[in-house]
């Protein structure tokens, strides 16, 4: 039985978005395709972040390559990079390591039965990644336009006065996270152990110089 890894990502670092639906849908595909899932990587990080700022994606790709995983499963191509250049770089890493890629949204497989890119793979990947990048820019434009209109009509952006937490408050609230980081645990493990987002752990690690 071929081995598979799932990578799921949502942009919101709060509980407003969850990777649960992505993971469940990809699990169903793996069962249908008779694939053995060896690991699941879940990340909460903005789609505008560079790949080097996505520690779970980096860990996922390294795991797939080091363990010679047969196929990486993800819901959309945009999960693999913030722009077409990063997506293509990620895809090239997978091709070089002979790791197949399944994209659920387009029902697309990167490699054929001989482990080579399918005939239309390069065109498909370039087109999908460019479309995703354009859509992200359109969303950013609409958000900025909405903010400008809100301010024009007297609205104020940012947190309310007094809503910022002091370092002491953070130290108390996230004492277990800080303790785990000081113990040398990975960012991903700390996030799972404390049921917080990876980005929260990253921020605390930076703020407390851990």
TrEMBL record:
**Could you tell me which SMART domains the record lists for this protein?**
Resolvase
Please, which domain of life does this record's source organism belong to? Answer: Bacteria
Q: Where is the Resolvase/invertase-type recombinase catalytic domain?
A: 3-154
Q: Which InterPro entries match?
A: Resolv_N, Resolvase-like_N_sf, SSR_resolvase
The UniProt GO MF terms for this protein read: DNA binding; DNA strand exchange activity
Spell out the CDD domains in the cross-references: SR_ResInv
Record-linked Pfam families:
Resolvase (PF00239)
Protein name in the entry: DNA resolvase
Gene source species? Parabacteroides acidifaciens
């Amino acid at each position: 039985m071929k081995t598979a890894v799932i990578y799921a990502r949502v942009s919101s670092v709060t509980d407003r978005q969850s990777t649960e639906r992505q993971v469940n849908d990809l699990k169903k595909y793996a069962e249908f395709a008779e694939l053995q899932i060896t690991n699941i990587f879940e990340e909460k990080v903005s789609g505008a972040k560079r790949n080097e700022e996505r520690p779970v994606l980096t860990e996922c790709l390294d795991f797939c390559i080091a363990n010679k995983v047969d196929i990486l499963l993800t819901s959309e191509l945009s999960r693999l990079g913030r722009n077409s250049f990063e997506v293509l770089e990620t895809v090239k890493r997978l091709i070089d390591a002979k790791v197949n890629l399944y994209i659920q949204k387009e029902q697309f497989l990167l490699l054929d039965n001989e482990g080579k890119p399918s005939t239309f793979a390069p065109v498909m990947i370039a087109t999908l990644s460019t479309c995703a990048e354009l859509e992200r820019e359109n969303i950013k434009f609409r958000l900025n336009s909405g903010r400008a209109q809100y301010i024009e009509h007297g609205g104020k952006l940012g947190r309310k006065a007094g809503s910022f937490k002091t370092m002491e408050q953070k130290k108390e609230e996230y004492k277990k996270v800080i303790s785990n980081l000081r113990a040398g645990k990975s960012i991903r493990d700390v996030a799972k152990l404390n049921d917080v987002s990876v980005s929260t752990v990253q921020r605390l690690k930076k703020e407390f110089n851990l």
